[in-house]
């Protein structure tokens, strides 16, 4: 493999790494927006309803909104966990791929300077 091929491969690795990190950032942004809604509007609605509306229907509505509130919290946590996993996997893959390219370059540079007689194998 020549230097151009190594450089092209590095470009693809960096591009894929960047795309993965962008996806992780999107998930973190979604989680943040969900948390903002939970701590703001939904929380306010839930508390106002609890204080101003009484009866069976009010209790039913409160439980439904509270369930939604809890599910949104779980979703935000899950999005952040997924984002962290994407980051970790992307970083590990990036490091391994770049290490493999570095090793291949070193081997090809060593191999280019050696002469091998009579069809023997390069070591």
Q: Count up the domains.
A: 1
CA distance, first residue to last residue: 17 Å
What spatial form do the alpha-carbon principal axes imply? rod-shaped
| Structural class assignment | mainly alpha
Number of strands: 0
Query: How many alpha or pi helices?
Result: 2
Instruction: Let me know the average pLDDT.
Output: 85
Helix content, binned percent: over 70%
> Approximately how much beta-strand content do the residues carry?
under 5%
Q: Report the order of strands and helices.
A: HH
Q: Which structural traits does this protein have?
A:
123 residues; 88% helix; disordered C terminus; mainly alpha
Polypeptide structure, described:
There is one protein chain. By secondary structure, the chain is mainly α. The protein has one domain (3-108). The chain has helices at 3-52, 56-113. Helix 1 (3-52) packs antiparallel against helix 2. The model is unreliable at 115-123 (pLDDT under 50).
């Amino acid at each position: 493999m020549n230097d151009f091929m190594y450089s092209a491969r590095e470009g693809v690795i960096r591009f894929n790494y960047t795309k993965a990190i962008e996806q992780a950032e999107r998930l973190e942004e979604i989680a943040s927006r969900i948390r903002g809604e939970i701590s703001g509007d939904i929380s306010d609605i839930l508390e106002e309803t609890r204080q101003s509306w009484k009866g069976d229907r009010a209790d039913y509505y409160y439980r439904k909104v509270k369930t939604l509130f809890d599910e949104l919290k779980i979703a935000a946590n899950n999005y952040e966990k997924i984002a962290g996993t994407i980051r970790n996997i992307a970083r590990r893959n990036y490091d391994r791929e770049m290490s493999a390219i570095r090793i291949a370059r070193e081997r090809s540079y060593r191999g280019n300077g050696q002469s091998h007689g009579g069809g023997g194998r390069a070591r």
